[in-house]
Amino acid sequence: MDIKELQQEIQIYCKSKVPEEACGLIVHNARGYEFVPCDNMAEDKEHNFSISDQIMLKHSRELVSIFHSHVENGTPAVTLADIKTCEAWGCLGSIVFLSSNDSNICSDLVFYGNNTTYRNYIGRPYYYNVFDCFTLIRDFYYHDLGKSLDFVYSDYGWWEKAEHAESLYLNEYKRLGFEEFDITKPLQVGDILAMRLGRSKCINHGTIYIGNNKILHHLEGKLSCVESFGKYSNRIERGFRYASNNENKLNKVVF
Q1: pTM to 2 decimals?
Q2: How far is Cα of residue 70 from the mean position of the Cα atoms in its chain?
Q3: Does residue 154 share a domain with residue 74?
Q4: What is the DSSP string of 95-119?
């Protein structure tokens, strides 16, 4: 079975399980890729999923991805719990999103995890922790600048909570190999321009300067795009520039 056929099978299965989260495994064997539907063992099946350890162990040698679905009435997002489940088994995560208002509305199958990267920069849908402003930065740095950035995972909406007084961008930029620079000075391709948008209590959005007075970025609820630097110049609060001379790439699964 190829990926397109796999996706169609998964989407049909997920629609049959609404309003519960569907779950299963994607495996690879002599017959190619296969979807293994699994019973959701979670107590709250509408908001969580769990697959039995016996099923996991049975397919561990051919396991490619742990799959589940989300039925969303807001911004589609992968949670920290979803990510940790996949990390514990050392495999990719995969997901489709369905609308709580119309179960026939179903996203494409997407993969996520620290070992994934996507080449396409323009026109991505917004799925938090899969396609968002930071994952776009991370993919751009990998493919265009040859630098691997660790993932910074977080639960959706941290920027609206009082207990998060500091931005994840401010907390993580040094660890990721960046240093702060004076945003009044000339910009370089790859500079990260950080902003505070919406109801945020702190910096919550990062854009990439790509030259010619253009930025590449991904706003919540919109497709990723290139826009004029000037449109957002008065919103920029901090600038971060990659400082490490480490040129090594991590091995990633490229989509």
Answers
A1: 0.91
A2: 14
A3: no
A4: EEEEESS-TT-BPPPEEESTTEE-S
